[in-house]
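look at this record:
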Amino acid sequence: MQDENGASVPQTIIWGLYVVVILAVFFFFLIFLVPLPTYRLVGHCFEVCVSLICVASSVYAYTKLSRRAIFLLAAFAFGGYALATTFWYLFSIAVGRSFVYISIAELGFLGFLLIFIAAITVEFPLENTGVWWTISCIVISLAIPLLVFWDTGTSQPVHDIILAVRFLLAGLLIAVSISHGVYKYSLLWTGICLRCIAGMLYGIRETIFTTYSIPLFSSTPASQALSAYDFLSVIGPLVILSFALIQLGLFQYILLSKSPPVAA
């Protein structure tokens, strides 16, 4: 990747991120073959490593490519997620997965969405897309938590509030991305959408499927039986894929942008 002024991203970084994309897709399907505890352990280690790779890539881009605030904000978002998912996994081992939601790790997960909302608002110019995009995204994103409340009641109000906040932030990130023209950059837009989907699936898994033990996939000679909660461990590969695409998308955006760099 190279812009009109000759600034470029080393090919090792670009190809490394594309390798991460391929590995994430491959790892997604391994859930049927790899024992679930091993799959979860490797998946969390994979998530942390990719998060730190994205931190390093964003810091490199800020210091060597363009001193735009979006790279610093992205580094903080990825770094916060790495800390949060590390704590989440260790905490789940200590107290059990059924008790890990809600913990301080939610600050890192929700903070990622908040930081990218701020980053896109600061970096990308506002386009004339109309306020209805924002209203529609918010209404659609809150519809699912409301349906959950209607079906399950509010026996755990804190869980329900965090679920609603998670969906609200995901909807806002999609809305902000649309209103600021992020959809013009395919890699970044795809990564953000995947990250929002993964975040919403995580909230659904931890509020609906924690006690839902009926197998979603029956065991076969080549695969293990998986409940809905078990299968949604594929959220990890989705997050990994989204991170790699977001980082590639940030490089794509900055190198295609014709506007002068903005000093942080």
Observations:
- Confidence is low (pLDDT under 50) at residues 258-264.
- The beta strands are 215-217, 226-227.
- Residues 218 and 262 are 54 Å apart (CA to CA).
- The first strand starts at residue 215 and ends at 217.
